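Posted in: Protein Modeling Q&A

I'm a second-year student putting together a small comparison for a lab meeting, and my supervisor asked me to include a predicted structure for Core-2/I-Branching enzyme. I've never done this before, so apologies if this is the wrong subforum. The sequence is pasted below exactly as I got it from our records. If anyone can share the structure token output, I'd also love a short note on what stands out.
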Amino acid sequence: MGRLHRLAKLLLSTAFLLVACVICHLILIASWNQSTFLLDRISIDCDAINGVNISELDNPTLAKWASWKYDHADREMAIYATSPGEASTVVDRDSHALFNETIHGLSSCFDNIHVVTSNRSIGWGGHEILTSMYGCAEYLAKQEHPWKYYQYLSGFDVPLKTNLEMVRIFRALNQTVNVEVVEPPHQTRNSRGELTPLRIYKASMSALVPRAAMNAVTKEHSAITTAVIRWLNVSPIASDELLWPTIFGNMRRLPIPGGFDARLILRKKSKRQSETNLKQRKYPRMNINVKITKSNGIIAATSRDVPVRYWLGRFQIWRNDKDEELCHGKMTHSSCVYGVGDVPNLLKRPELVAHKLYIDYQPAAFFCLLKEHQRRSMDAHNKFNASVFSSMPFVELARGVDIEHLSHPELLY
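Accepted answer (user: helix_wrangler)
Welcome! Here is the predicted structure, written out as tokens:
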């Protein structure tokens, strides 16, 4: 009961407005140490949990999807699944029984947490992730809750921005989709020999999608979206990173509000990269308004001039990436697991979340970031200025600026 109460009180301690769509599955919870669960069953006292009042904030809301390990989940949900928002949780058939019971028990205390049990096993890189991700987005788009942005979260993300900071960033993005775009392996037919409904593009799954765009995808353009998903589900390549850039990057054939022309973006990126020597390639730097702060002996070592990319959903370092030397943790599955040495850099980053941190690898990094996040969340005089994000490439292109006249073309890198 104590563990559940800790989670509930943390949930209620942070006044976030968001919509959360969570997928919890065996792949990410298989490493549980079951001895940490001292209860044979979950006993829930909803009256005790709901005894805390929270203030309603008139801010844009976020829609989030995630897959979590439990020890990570009870801290992530303290930030992302608070009462003013909506949470749709998908638990797959292989989830541990106690985990399943805990999530269902939590939902019984909150009207805004909805649990769906999937009869499928959800695995890393599998097509079930795509189906579940879109199912969450579709569910959230049908809700009357006035959320403004959908944000995708994957397992082991840690927030780098407070709710207030994210609200300011989303306002600066001005209802535009923000997602990475890369050219995928040449693929025009799936395993059945069927042609692609739209030109396929690849990206990180960490998309930021405005409500109008998500409504268009799941409602008036749902037929073409469904056709793309069906094609991807029998594609020989990993499908989970292909949906959002494909749907939002085909503006000429699918005019989604806040979308973009991926061909134009890739052409500009290719031109800029060809003009730069491979060994000299670094992400460009930009003046981001973050300040050095000190509170209770904790220093948020920040810099105004930081490396910036055109997509803001998450900060992730890959093996052989331009920023690989910035990883002071370890590489797992070709991706950096951040450690204590990464904290100063992470506190500078303009992205919304850091991916990835393991609670059982140099946990001081994990808790330091969460503590700093909580401190800034309680700062009523937070001076974070997000105006610079209004000059991001996708925002200017949506305003009609020619791609040759962008304020920061160097960000398309």
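A couple of things worth pointing out for your meeting: The mean pLDDT is 75. The radius of gyration is 21 Å.
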